[in-house]
Amino acid sequence: MLLRRTVTVLAGLFVLFVLIAPSDLEKFSFESFLRVPLEGLIGVMVLVLLPDRFRKPAAIVGGIALGLFTVVKIMDIGFDMVLYRPFDLVLDWPLLVPAIDFVDVTFGRFASVLAVALAVALVAGIVFLAAISVQRLSSVAAGRRPIAIRAVALVAVACVSLAVPGVPVYSDAAATSLVDHARRVQAGLNDREVFAAEASVDAFRGHPGLLSSLQGKDVVFTFVESYGKSALDMPDVAAKLAQGNDRLKAAGYSARSAYLTSPTAGGGSWMAQATLLSGLWIDNQQRYRNLVASDRLTLPRAFRESSWRSVGVVPGITQAWPEGDFFHYNQIYAAQDLGYKGPRFGYATTPDQFTLESFQRNERSKAHGPVMAAIPMVSSHAPWSPTPDSVEWDKLGDGSIYSTMPASNDPPESIFGRDPAAVRADYAHSISYSLESVLSYVEKYGDENLVMVFLGDHQPAQMVTGEGASRDVPITIVAKDPAVMDQVAGWKWDDGIKPGGSAPVSRMSDFRDQFLSTFSPPND
Questions:
Q1: Which residues cross the membrane (predicted)?
Q2: Would you say the pTM of this structure is higher than 0.90?
Q3: What are 220-259's pLDDT values in tens digits?
Q4: Contact predicate 276/508, CB 8 Å
Q5: Is the same domain home to 242 and 186?
Q6: Could you tell me where the beta strands, DSSP code E, fall in 347-504?
Q7: pLDDT digits over 333-377, tens only?
Q8: Residues 181 and 298 in one domain
Q9: DSSP state letter for 332
Q10: Separation CA 329–CA 317 (nearest Å)
Q11: What is the DSSP letter of 472?
Q12: Which one, of 484, 469, 475, 485, lies nearest residue 505 by Cα?
């Protein structure tokens, strides 16, 4: 008897937890569970009033549905922690493939197969547990039908009677979540057509004289991983930017800065980079796949068709990258092409400073025509520890010098098992290192023909930014030639490499057109 009652209580607590638990881990609190789930009251009444021959099948179906809802809620929590948004039932399934690939590359094929097997077992276990829990509660309630009906009625009346503005007594979180997911499903099913319509409009395809105002310039776009607006408030980063601004001024450079709103946050760097380079809003994997299968004019392609040598320096690419062909680079330098012989620092296969040195060695150190480069900087990718030290440029060699520094191969998700204050400090240190790599590169190798654009791809995880952070990232353009800076004066960006609180903000997808229209003749 005691065992049966214990099982019943545990089943009830499980169902109660699933129905009431928030989809945002930061909203978990003791008070958030002191509510009555309306969906639970309705479910009890339906099962109690059903004829006996229908009740058990209905309980099993309802339990399976509750189990699947639980899985989706877990996905919601995970996506909110990393990407600041719920899981999309239509558009987010392709994101699981890169996750599996990451485990495969980082820990091996056995680890990736094991991770998939454990995930499948977890889903099956949750669905089974939900099904037997609902079945157990249904049987108990049906065996005491009059008491169950009275109890539900009493609780419902109490919820209405005790309701006080601002003090929630009941919860409809499960129903609200289902409605929200249904709306996102509808939007996701229509997104393919919406994106096709957006992509069909391109004012710069066939535009004569593209980028003619930059002829003879080496134009470098560097994406500083996780460099978000939130970093600007951190003392280490603010000091690095202030110091860097003074150094660039002393070397004869000018800079202007603003903000771009990224299509993603916490992760999804490839979507942000594709957004900036293509001029289309890429906020899900379906859009990314459709983009790379299209004939869209990207910035690398525009430069290549205007007589620049266009290169992609992508240290985060460690295996075949077929979608790289979409960008129309003359050459792609993946991780294995950079000549790095040192250790790995967290996610980063190559320290940012070495990445830039490799680009300089392969492209700009010899006699060359104008070159355009897109370079993701990955040292500031989570887990943000350890971060390498800056090295004198002439001593980088093949990277063996880094062997004297603490290194690791920790996965990005390891941040969730560490002290948040330490994570934020490590994040600020890694951003400072990446910024120093860019700034010192300009000092060391810059000249009248260098135009450097550096920006963040997205904000870091909410563990760093806190809840409610924007998706804005800083962007800066640096050049020594006054003619270049005169042409961007119309952008009304702030002077210097740190945008102020009231600096202009635009969508990241608008930058391509802004850049092309500024440095190209009018399209009559």
A1: 32-50, 57-75, 110-135, 147-170
A2: no
A3: 999 999 999 999 999 999 999 999 999 999 999 999 999 9
A4: yes
A5: no
A6: 371-377, 450-456, 472-479, 494-495
A7: 999 999 999 999 988 889 999 999 999 999 999 889 999 999 999
A8: no
A9: E
A10: 15
A11: E
A12: 475
